[in-house]
Each structure stands twice: as C-alpha cells, then as structure tokens.
Amino acid sequence: MSVARKRLRYIARRLGQAVPIVLGIVVTNFFLLQLAPGDAADVLAGEAGSATPEYMAMLRQRFGLDQPLFTQLFYYVKNVLLLDLGFSFRHNMPVLHLILERLGPTLLLMGATLVLSVASGVLLGLLAATRVGSWRDTMISILAIVSYATPLFWVGLMLIVAFSLKLDWLPATGMESVGMFYSGWERVVDVSRHLVLPAITLSLFYMALYARLMRAAMIEQSRMDYVTTARAKGLSERRVTFRHVLRNALLPVFTMAGVQTGNLLGGSVIVESVFGWPGLGLLAFQSLFARDFNLLLGIFFLSACLVVIVNLLVDLLYTFVDPRIEVG
To answer: What is the mean pLDDT of the chain?
Structure first.
C-alpha cells in the first residue's frame, strides 16, 4: 500500500474516532454552562430595567428555556450533528454565521502566535543547549522563566504603553485602521501592524515553554548512543547537531504545540480583550456575560474541532520530520 493511501486511511480513522470525543465535549460543556446563574431572559429583563413574569415566560418559551434540561440537550445535539449551532439572541443571527465571521481574525492571531512561539522557542532552546552552563544559557533560561511567569494581560498593557502610547510605532487596538478603507497590499501592511503586539503578547508564554522543552530535549538527545557513534565517525559538531540531534529534539516540541492549541485559544480571550482584536476570544467573553449560551457552546464546539484537527496535523508532521515514523 502506498504512503499516500496509508495517510488517507489514517486521517479517515482518526476523524472517525474524533466524532464521539467531540460529542462528549459538547455534552459536558452543555451541562457546565447550566451551572451558571441566570439565563438569556434574565439578562434581557435586566437590560430593560424591569419585566413582567408573563414577558419573562414568553422569552423563555421563545428561546426554548422552558423545556426540561434533557429535552434541550437532545435537540441541541441533534442540531449539532446537522451542523446547526443554533441562534444567537444577542446578535439576532445564526451562531454559525457569527463564528465564521470571527474565525478569520482568531486563526490569523493563533497562526502568527504558533509560528512565532515555536520558531523563537526552538531557536532559543537550541542556542542554550549548545552552550550549557554558559552566560548565554543562563540569560535564555532567565528570559524563559520571566516570560513564563508574567501574566499575559500585564505584558499586553505594558507593550501598549511602550510601543503605542510612548513611541507611537504600532496601533494599540483593533485589527484595521478605522475609516482608512485600505485595500490590497496597503491593507495587508495595516493588518500586520495591528497584529504585532497581540501576537508577541500571546507568544511570550509559549515561547518560554518551547525554549525550555527544546533545551531539555537537545541535551537528552546529545547523550544518546547514536550521537556518540556519529561523533566517533568523525562528523563535525555542527553536522551532528543539525542532522541528528535537532530532528529528534523537535518531536516533543511539536507534540506540545499540538496539545497547547486549546490553551492558545483560551489565552486569546485575554489578549483579544486587551487589544480589542475582533476574534472568537472576545466574542466568547462577551457572550458569557450576555448568557448567550448557544453562541458560547458553538465557540466551544469549534475549539474542540480545531484541537482535533491540529493534533492530527502534528501526528502527520512527525512522518515528515522523522521518516522512520510511519502512520499506522
């Protein structure tokens, strides 16, 4: 059987296995959100100032909140299987439409963060591992610990103060300049300038994690027998590092990057709120306070699907990084 066919069968099997997992997450999220006090009718009544019991009952009937809990769950799961994520009362439009509208900015932010954090983390980990115990190793370790321990919102606020308010180099909020109506290359440049500070803020934490992981993996691999054999053959240290050690040390970093995808989306809630980035994180934050549970469940459902897809891509990436690994 050809390698391409093996990969297609592997992808189909993994996607089939993911269906019950995603449904389990949907059911769990549904029950967890029921623990939150209040519902959509309470929020609307609070915003109106007052409401009669008849009006509240009418709202609950309209949103289906007067039905027994398991009846609501049955219809919700049934609709999810048909890719109908429900209706957002807050935005007065289908949830799927809202999510697709905000998905692009979030994927852009997550993609930029993932590339930046993995690239800088691998580079710093490599530099530290090749000079263990030196001042370079010490500086990188201190930088990683400080980045790991600093809260994301504080980093974001300090970057805004330094690069937006003081130096006026980069915009502080939003995804595009309001009222400029850029198009083509000018729009790409404008969005890129808005992306710099949120991407750096979100990537610092993960950069520190990948740098520490890469350093440890490089040190562990450099002590393996196959590395000793390669050195005994007379290969240069540079060739041993980049042709043998680096390839195997990258595997745990890729594994961690796949696992961290869900956390990356969670971190984007804070970063998008600080920078006013119009993505799913900001939408989830707003929908939680509005008790817009249909919208929140839809975002959770999409997050679960994203994690499954990214982990599948990471598993496939193994076979390209290390050809000895075959998909089963």
So the answer is: 84
pTM exceeding 0.85? no
- Report the C-alpha gap between 54 and 263 in whole angstroms: 42
**What's the sign of the alpha-carbon dihedral 27, 33, 35, 41?**
negative
In the numeric block, which tokens belong to residue 4? 């391409």
Q: How confident is the model at residue 327 (pLDDT cuts 50, 70, 90)?
A: low
Q: What is the pLDDT of residues 287-303, one digit of tens each?
A: 887 778 888 888 888 88
Residue 128, Cβ density class (10 Å: 0-12 exposed, 13-18 middle, ≥19 buried): buried
CA dihedral 211, 216, 220, 223 (to 10 degrees): 80
Task: Quickly count: other Cβ atoms within 10 Å of residue 224's Cβ.
Answer: 13
Q: What is the mean pLDDT of residues 307-322?
A: 77
pLDDT score at 1: 63
